[in-house]
Amino acid sequence: MLINPDKARRHLETVRYYAIKSCFEYMRTLLNAQGGLDMNGNEKQAPPGKITPPLPKPVAPRRKRIWGPVLLASIAAGITGALLVLLVMPAIFGVNPYDLVRGKVKSVGVGESSGVSANKINVVSPTQGATNVSGVASKVTPAVVNIDTKSTPQETMFPFFSPRVQEGTGSGVIYSANGYILTNNHVVSDAQDITVTLASGEEFKGKKVGADPDNDIAVVKIDKTGLPAIAIGDSDKLVVGQLAVVVGSPLGFEQTVTAGVVSALHRTLGTSSLNGNQNVLIDLIQTDAPINPGNSGGALCDASGKLIGVNTLIASTSGGSEGLGFAIPVNTAKKVADDLIAGRSISHPYIGVLGQTISESIATQYNLPVSKGAYVTRVVPDSPADKAKIKTGDIIVQIDGKPVKSMDDVISTVRSHKVGDKISVTYHSGGSKKTVELTLEEKRNTPVE
What we know:
With 449 residues, the chain is of the alpha+beta class.
């Protein structure tokens, strides 16, 4: 829009006048409210010819009120308010407050340089310079669905309190034309009722085919054919800086499109759900494309409109988007989805330990031999770690030739291998440093790696 300099100057002069006037009016009101004080804070004398009525006899001694400090504080507050108006309002109009007070605000006439085009003012978009994503949106949005869930918590110890139905909203991607929908496990994990809404507005009851909590992937089936399945890309070919387009239902706003870039690759993050379940996700794609609650299970696409990831979580201090979104690589999601649809079990290698990350403060407090590593808190009987004589209290400092700085490093390294692979583990035990070779086995139904 255009800003009229003359109009802006008049607004600012008016603001200055009323700000100063309001300051004095505020001071005068305060003086009158004090019950008879003059500008110096002294008691005013009664007008000539008037008789001041005597004060009633006090019942008990009263403390004399000290009006001076109160008056000064009130005046200071009034001046502060006026100054705030004088400083803030000019800034809104793009004028230096000092110039306003000195009366240096003037209009810019024809032929004078104002630094702004005489015809228009360009509004800079936060995404200016990014590729137009309308083409990507038109390809992807028909293949993205909204998923509404309902679940009833287990009965509590108080049977007279009926459990309250919990509702949730997430997103999904049409994986095949015959009704298979790809989404996150945490979107449908506890759902007893699933409703899938297509981009056309049609609603269908959904049934969970299967899920893989370790990779946070699930597949839902609806009774519908001829669906617009999304094109599948290749997440192994991603490069940092390339275009990333997000489509989903943030906060329930269906078919929302946002854009950014691939900020980083191969991220590892620990997660925890509302019911207390903890997990570690590996090999994640990081993007600065805005992702909010409700985007989970939705599409992360490249410039050609192909699926490169399934949005799964954000890192945030506010609960909303802060430019730190993460997605499961499509190559991982595709492999899991294919196994679930085919009825095959999902393979997860493990060594059989539960551990805790060691920090410098923990190392100092417990006088540990190292300041970084993974402290073993539990070993599964007859697991690869148990067979290698690793025990509770040992500290893993290296795995598969890579230094271990946290328990997440152990988890991500193990999961990057297959069942049957051999890896080396270096650890501290009983004052000595040891190295053993383990053969990875199929993970059992236990929260260990």
